[in-house]
Design goal:
alpha/beta, globular, 13 strands, 289 residues, 4-stranded mixed sheet, UDP-N-acetylmuramoyl-L-alanine:D-glutamate ligase
Length: 289
């Protein structure tokens, strides 16, 4: 078991399941509705906790009703909160998610007025027992300072680059492992994962760069050596929410268990594929390294 600190956001997910995606300016009936805890770092922590790691989440969390629900669910999943600084002046970040049951596609409307975690808050966390640091690529200026401080503890640092934000490239040299998403790569006009990775490898050759590409699998480059794993075959996707977060957790878990890069890619793809066959993020510890 390793001690993992994850920095990012925790979100209330309100999920509506529909028979087909609605047309604009129309009304349809949801077949089912579920309310769950979400957020990238939060989801990754859920998986890593199932895999018997000790997870701590550094995040801001309001004291509203939704925040109380999220706090209780974190506790239920054995995820500790590093920051207890909350505020009544804000509401919990909320994602309104519509899932088409025909193909498990999901569309998300996200609302937040809650300030991001600041470096001043992060600076109060005791870090000497942490074995791995994982960051969401957001709130760039403060996250950069958090990552710089984490370097002093000589442990692995990973960062997820999911969306193209102002100055987000500045986080890449501060991490050992960088997880790029397909939407990020496409926002930079890369049509293939390899093209994205080769570009950043030419700038940061010593970094382990990873890019997932949906059903086409996952790719990695390290020291100009390329790695690939095909996606895990499933008959039908049930729920793809959190699949990327599950992949990240799987890769971190595999690396902590001393698997090589290729083995880690394969394991992470299998775990993410298994997640897509399940509703939510439960019972994923049945598939371990």
């Amino acid at each position: 078991m390793s001690n993992i600190l994850l920095t990012g956001i925790v979100v209330l997910d309100i999920i509506n399941y529909v028979d087909s995606y609605p047309k604009e300016d129309s009304e349809i009936r949801a077949l089912n509705q579920k309310i769950r805890r979400g957020g990238n770092a939060s989801n990754t922590a859920t998986i890593l906790s199932q895999l018997k790691h000790s997870c701590t989440l550094a995040t801001n969390l309001p004291t509203d009703t939704s925040g109380q629900f999220l706090s209780k669910d974190l506790d239920k999943n054995n995820i500790k909160l590093a920051i207890l600084g909350t505020s009544r002046a804000y509401t919990s970040p909320t994602s309104y998610i519509t899932i088409n049951i025909q193909n498990a596609s999901r569309s998300i409307i996200h609302y937040r007025d809650l300030p991001e975690l600041s470096f001043t808050q992060f600076d109060k966390i005791l870090l000497n027992t942490i074995d791995w640091f994982h960051f969401e690529g957001r709130n760039i200026r403060d996250t950069s300072e958090m990552m710089k401080k984490s370097h002093g503890f000589n442990k692995s640092i990973s960062v997820e680059i999911e969306k193209d934000r102002d100055n987000i490239d500045s986080l890449i040299p501060l991490a050992d492992i960088i997880f790029f998403s397909r939407p990020f790569a496409e926002s930079r006009n890369f049509s293939e994962a390899r093209d994205c990775l080769k570009h950043f490898n030419s700038i940061y050759p010593d970094k382990l760069l990873i890019c997932t590409w949906g059903t086409e699998g996952a790719f990695a480059i390290h020291n100009s050596q390329e790695f690939f794993s095909s996606a895990f075959y499933i008959d039908k996707a049930i729920d793809t929410i959190g699949a990327g977060d599950t992949f990240n957790a799987g890769f971190i878990h595999a690396q902590l268990n001393k698997l090589n890069i290729n083995e880690s890619l394969i394991y992470a793809c299998k775990l993410a594929g298994l997640k897509c066959t399940k509703d939510g993020l439960t019972n994923l510890d049945i598939f371990d390294v």
